[in-house]
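Worked example (supplementary).
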Amino acid sequence: MEQAKSVLLKCEALSVGYTSSSLEKPIVKEANLQLKPGMFTTLVGINGSGKSTLLRSLAGLQKPFSGSVILNDIPLNKLSPDARSKCISVVLTGQQISKNLSVLELVALGRQPYTNWLGKLSAHDKTHIDQAIASTQLEALQHTPCYALSDGQFQRALIARALAQDTPIIMLDEPTTHLDLHHKASIFTLLSEIAHKHHKTVLCTTHDIELVLSLCDEMIVIQNEKAQQNTPQQLIADGVFNQLFPSNSIGFDQNSRRFFIK
Amino acid sequence: MVLLLFLANIALGSVKIPIEAIFDIFFDPANVKEAWKYIILDYRIPKALAAVMTGSGLAVAGLMMQTLFKNPLAGPFVLGISSGASLGVAFFILGGSALGLTAMLAPNGWGTILAASLGSFAVLSIVILVAARVRDAMALLIIGLMFGSLTSAVVSILAYFSPAEDLQRYMFWSFGSLGDISWPALGILSVCYVIGILLALSITKSLNSLLLGDHYAQTLGVSLKKSRFIILIATSILAGSLTAFVGPIAFVGLAVPHLIRQWFTASNHWVLMPACILGGAVLMLFCDIIAQMPWFEFTLPINAITSLIGAPIVIWLLVRKKKLLF
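After joint prediction of all chains, the assembly is encoded as:
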């Protein structure tokens, strides 16, 4: 894969949340964050803290209440859907994906932004598809329909689809839920490879904090409606993880880098 | 296959006409009985053309609805198109006679067509208006179903107060009929059909993206609002005009896309779309041949035939595959 163009995504004073009976309920307020190329950033926080909401807003899938998401000095909402699709690709959970698609068809859909109105794949598109399938080790499964895949395989196919889209930024929403430790580790390793080798911006929400501490370059921690961004080392030193969970039920041991039940 | 069935469709019917005579009509018209010529040119050929358009148009509309709603139960009529048309026709036939309007407005079949078009258009514009406010495709589906219930309730009330002969006329319309179509009507229908099919083809790439769900489709550069609007318009033009001209034809729109998907084991709409056009035409011609079997004295209602054939096929598919994926 060629080197991705350097694209910087940042947000300024971004407030996001959900609307219930036309009342805006912000869950993350005034977030100032920066996603840099070549960096593997993870987004963590307890259930319902707004990880997915923040991720969706950064990807331009959800309107923020206030503040703006800026991609290389251009506000994201000023970009056409077409231009956006060439900058940001996503891996989401709980989408209604047609499981009749084969792995190859699923990955090939990642090339949609580059094809003409007939959706015909060029040789260049096919190279990208093959590379995406190869780097997620799905060669043997490419003609398997998605309903026959295991959770881990399906997740890898979704990541391959995002890779085939060949965007400088990839955002993933809890790509490791329901996976065993081995598959979690292999996905996080893959993501850090993608960021470092191909100089891409990778943002990933997760609950597997202990696992990603040593793999990611930066972390965004959402806590009490605030989002802070720093290196894992600094966050540990600041004792952020010790207070991550409410009512002090769970503590964090700085030496072993593990959570423990108090 | 389509051509063969098309020929068979023209050749078979309650009046027996030898196949040579059919060719003679085109190549040596002087040789052929006037009555045969009339039957073939003004009845069977328009009917066969109507069957082709009905089958393929409804199948394409059904395919688009199933992909848009990500629901294997969706069909061309989930948006309340057929119920709207029924309502229009019910008002026209059942309500109109009470006011003495029917005779005045309908010197020929055009009144029913107009009423059906107006009815389906009215219900559809309400559904589309609501669709603009509701973002959830599933809610839209349920709203369409609710409109269906509402209109059938109104139709029942109208029917309750209507004389028997009006009721019979309404029933005949609801059976669906490919045969009552004249050449000018066919002309209008084909214009609608071509517009609908072209719109459907223009949106095929987006339909492929929609297979991944709305969010993914958006990140692939699909403008959800725009493509949803085009899909709704294309479906309404196809299903609305077809219902207006041939009546509410059940099942083709729901069953054909499933059959095609299982047959080709494909999800790519560039495969499914042409396959649905051909498959829908084949099924409809076949149903119509059965409806007008040579050894019958009469022609059976087409709507009964499509369901009689369609329902077992879908049940068989379900039992065999155990699940129906959209």
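Two points are worth noting when inspecting this output. Chain B touches chain A through 25 residues (CB under 8 Å). The CA atoms of residues 183 and 268 of chain B lie 36 Å apart.
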